[in-house]
Design brief:
Blueprint lengths: L3 H15 L3 E5 H8 L3 H11 L6 E5 L6 E6 L5 H11 L6 H13 L5 H10 L10 H21 L2
Antiparallel strand pairs: 1-3, 2-3
Helix pairs in contact: 1-3, 2-3, 4-7, 5-6
């Protein structure tokens, strides 16, 4: 069974697809539809719909607390990857990396096979010999290098 955050993410992406890349939602209405609290909607928006992942999220106070989510115009694959590299910080969790990879697949930037290889290379299992406090930084270095490699091969 899919996790609640995945269900919420998929619902929002479906709305974006149906409305030419722009969706206006109410946190409370969406939360009611999926039987959760509005803060879980906020969590999904703040982790799965960031600028670095190709989205603009605008919150509107009043009028039911609507939130407008816009998909950033698709850039060329190399531009999108460069934008992502520049937006990344110093450390990356496995979950965050998987969100980026899902977005890359959604935009047709990487194939399922490429995403699977990257995911395997940066998984907690692959980094199991590292101390826990170093995994995020090493994962980020590997991830950035793999993205640069994709750009170089484009």
């Amino acid at each position: 069974m899919a996790r609640l955050v995945d269900v919420i993410e998929e619902m929002i992406k479906q709305l974006l697809d149906e409305n030419q890349g722009v969706a206006v939602i109410s946190r409370s209405v969406l939360a009611e539809k999926v039987n959760c609290v509005p803060s879980q909607i906020t969590y999904v928006l703040s982790t799965r719909f960031t600028n670095g992942q190709g989205f603009i999220v605008e919150s509107r106070r009043g009028g039911g607390g609507q939130i407008r989510i816009s998909r950033i115009q698709r850039l060329a694959s190399t531009d999108y990857l460069m934008h992502t590299i520049n937006a990344l910080g110093d450390d990356l969790s496995q979950q965050e990396a998987e969100v980026y990879l899902r977005n890359f697949m959604d935009y047709g930037i990487v194939t399922d096979r490429q995403a699977a290889l990257i995911k395997a290379a940066i998984s907690d299992n692959a980094l199991s010999r590292l101390e826990a406090d170093k995994k995020g930084a090493v994962r980020m270095d590997i991830f950035k290098n793999m993205l640069v490699s994709l750009i170089a091969r484009s």
